[in-house]
Design goal:
single chain, Rossmann fold, TIM Barrel, 2 domains, 8-stranded mixed beta barrel, 6-stranded parallel sheet, 17 helices, about 40% helix, elongated
Length: about 425
């Protein structure tokens, strides 16, 4: 039974239709002459919810689903690409949740109006989204007709709040110090602690050299970060937690800015070296990143794409690589060696540099199958004109085998530990 025949039902699992229509496809049926058609982006980590929302919109004349994604980074990327009229954002999804998506979409697609979409128990998170630019809040389980009406009101610029929530949310938003009360005591402490990392002098950029394995010459540096105030946590854990509370992209941008500033003197001394800056999907679509990286000559910048699993498809990853190439910069992708999927990614996106997964290099001197696999990968990359950088080189034995195989570049503690750049 289609959604058109049950407008008074609540939104449930999909009935097996295809996914959302593309942006150039008209809504189902003939739209009345003069009817304004609004485009909608759906972001929710539950496949059944995404499909159900897409099906619901498929039955309308005036609402078109241009994309349905599962995480905040993909939501920002799709918003940058499609510039939708409305984005429906799940409060609790990977990549920082609806809050991170709202902040990112506000920058890459200012015209998009955003709706928080969550269970009624998520009010505190929703309030944060409203403060970050969301135009309303719809509760999961609402009647389909109420959801459609809310989408239309939001697209037209109205504030939308599910019945029974208006007084609570308006009162909470108007209270002094509401931002602090929006988090539980534990969440508030985490947010404030991580927010300190954005203050001057708290984090320090470090640089790990990428070395030519035969000559020992430094070709470039990967920008990393030292959070010395939090020695019990790894850098990866800190960034992961920052994304969880909605500060991940801001922290990435902050550390990229510090890294670029600290690299200026080295570039003046050695103009042929490059700086590799890590960027998640959410950061790649921020105009602020371009401003930061444009302080260096584009040929001296490598954008190392991280968290590739956040991309909704290879097409989206390929679009992102094209975006970087349009700016005159090079692209690196990591984790080469994860099987066919990794090789398929290289065929699709054509980066200039790939990072050989440390799981392969760690035992390459003692494990013949790993050595054979890396040899085949090196030949594959050579045929495609891609430079291979081996990560995690820590022993002379590893270095000798990688040289014999023909890997040109590498990084690791044997070649140089991450350290601040000399002034």
């Amino acid at each position: 039974m289609s959604f058109s025949s049950r407008r008074n039902a609540t939104l449930t699992a999909p009935s097996g239709r295809q996914g959302p229509r593309g942006p150039d496809m008209a809504p189902a049926g003939a739209a009345p002459a003069g009817l304004r058609v609004y485009t909608v982006l759906v972001a929710d980590d539950a496949p059944s919810t995404r499909q159900a929302l897409a099906e619901l919109l498929e039955d309308t004349h005036d609402l078109v689903c241009v994309a349905a994604v599962a995480d905040a980074g993909s939501a920002v990327a799709k918003a940058a690409h499609y510039q939708p009229d409305v984005a429906v954002l799940d409060v609790r999804m990977p990549g920082g949740g609806g809050l991170a998506a709202a902040v990112g979409i506000r920058e890459v697609s200012p015209r998009t109006r955003m709706l928080a979409y969550s269970a009624a128990s998520d009010r505190a998170s929703v309030v944060q989204m409203l403060r970050s630019g969301a135009r309303g809040y719809l509760v999961k389980g609402s009647l389909a007709q109420d959801l459609l009406a809310g989408l239309r009101r939001c697209a037209q610029g109205a504030t939308v709040l599910s019945e029974g929530l208006s007084e609570h949310l308006i009162a909470e938003m108007g209270e002094q110090g509401k931002a602090e009360r929006a988090f539980s005591a534990a969440a508030k402490a985490r947010y404030e602690r991580l927010n300190e990392l954005l203050q001057p002098g708290v984090s320090c950029p470090t640089y790990q050299p990428v070395v030519h394995l035969r000559t020992g010459a430094v070709a470039g540096y990967e920008a990393l970060t030292d959070f010395s105030w939090e020695p019990s946590h790894s850098t990866e854990d800190i960034f992961r937690e920052a994304h969880h509370v909605g500060l991940g992209v801001e922290l990435e941008l902050h550390t990229a800015r510090l890294a670029v500033d600290g690299f200026q003197a080295e570039l003046a001394r050695c103009p042929d070296t490059y700086l590799a800056v890590n960027a998640s999907p959410g950061l790649l679509y921020r105009p602020s990143l371009v401003e930061v990286l444009s302080q260096l000559p584009p040929t001296r910048v490598v954008v190392e794409i991280t968290e590739q699993r956040q991309f909704d498809s290879y097409d989206q990853l390929r679009e992102t690589v094209c975006l970087v190439h349009e700016r005159g910069m090079r692209v690196a992708v990591d984790d080469m060696g994860s099987g066919f999927a990794g090789l398929q990614r290289l065929v699709d996106v054509r980066p200039e540099i790939v990072k050989l997964d440390r799981a392969l290099t760690s035992e390459i001197d003692t494990d013949p199958p790993r050595r054979a696999l890396v040899t085949a990968m090196r030949q594959f990359a050579d045929d495609m004109g891609i430079v291979v950088v081996a990560e995690g080189i820590e022993r002379d034995e590893q270095l000798a085998v990688l040289r014999d195989i023909g890997i040109d570049y590498g990084q690791g503690y044997l070649l140089g530990r991450p350290a601040p750049m000399e002034g």
